[in-house]
């Protein structure tokens, strides 16, 4: 063991519990980010922000337009993630992990959870409108135990800043 290595450590990277938040620019996703950021800061965890670019429908003759639209969607997702990463850093003093995926949102969330064993908790905020809690909360609520392998925290979309701080 080298002198710079504390006793009991083998030099392997330390595993840190990741709080996964799916970002879409809604006020609810920002509430989920606030909650996840404070929980991660209080528990030594990491915030992972995931933006999913949903596929568009286009015929072969419009493939060039589809490619341009996907490139623009990726640029927007990158801009959103970087803005939110700065927000997480200011809010909780941590730098989040940023991920962009392309595909169906539910499939990409499940795939990421399957690939990254450090993702320990999915944090969602419920919608506040008449439409219901939102598509992600509905997806999780309707999933069977076998289909959803990690705990999910659903934060009410109406929580105030003070309430988030007291709960996280």
In the sheet with the most strands, the strands line up as 3-2-1-4-5
Report the C-alpha radius of gyration, rounded: 18 Å
Helix content: 40-55%
CATH topology, what is it called? Rossmann fold
- The mean pLDDT is 83
Structural class: alpha/beta
Largest sheet: number of strands, sense, barrel closure: 5 strands, parallel
Q: Give the overall form.
A: globular
Order of helical and strand elements: EHEHEHEHEH
- The CATH class label is Alpha Beta
Number of separate helices: 5
N- to C-terminal distance: 38 Å
Number of domains: 1
Describe the protein in words:
The protein has a single domain (about 20-165), classed as 3-Layer(aba) Sandwich (Rossmann fold), CATH 3.40.50. It has five helices and five strands. The chain has helices spanning about 25-45, 65-90, 105-115, 135-140, 160-165, and strands at about 20, 45-55, 95-100, 120-125, 150-155. Strands 3-2-1-4-5 form a five-stranded parallel beta sheet, sandwiched between helices. Strand 2 (about 45-55), helix 2 and strand 3 (about 95-100) form a beta-alpha-beta unit. Helix 1 crosses helix 2 and helix 1 (about 25-45) packs parallel to helix 5 (about 160-165). The longest helix is centred in the middle third of the chain and has 30 residues, at about 65-90. The N and C termini lie far apart (about 40 Å).
């Amino acid at each position: 063991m080298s002198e710079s290595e504390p006793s009991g450590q083998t030099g392997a990277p330390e595993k840190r519990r990741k709080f996964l938040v799916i970002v879409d620019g809604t006020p609810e996703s920002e509430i989920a980010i606030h909650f996840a950021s404070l929980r991660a800061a209080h528990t030594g965890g990491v915030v992972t922000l995931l933006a999913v670019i949903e596929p568009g429908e286009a015929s072969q003759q419009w493939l060039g337009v589809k490619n341009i639209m996907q490139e623009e969607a990726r640029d927007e997702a990158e801009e959103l993630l970087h803005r939110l990463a700065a927000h997480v850093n200011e809010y909780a003093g941590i730098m989040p992990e940023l991920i962009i995926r392309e595909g169906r949102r539910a499939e990409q969330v499940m795939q990421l959870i399957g690939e990254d064993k450090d993702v320990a908790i999915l944090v969602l905020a419920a919608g506040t409108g008449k439409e219901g809690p939102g598509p992600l909360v509905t997806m999780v609520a309707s999933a069977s135990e076998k289909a959803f392998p990690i705990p999910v925290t659903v934060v009410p979309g109406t929580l105030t800043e003070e309430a988030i701080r007291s709960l996280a």
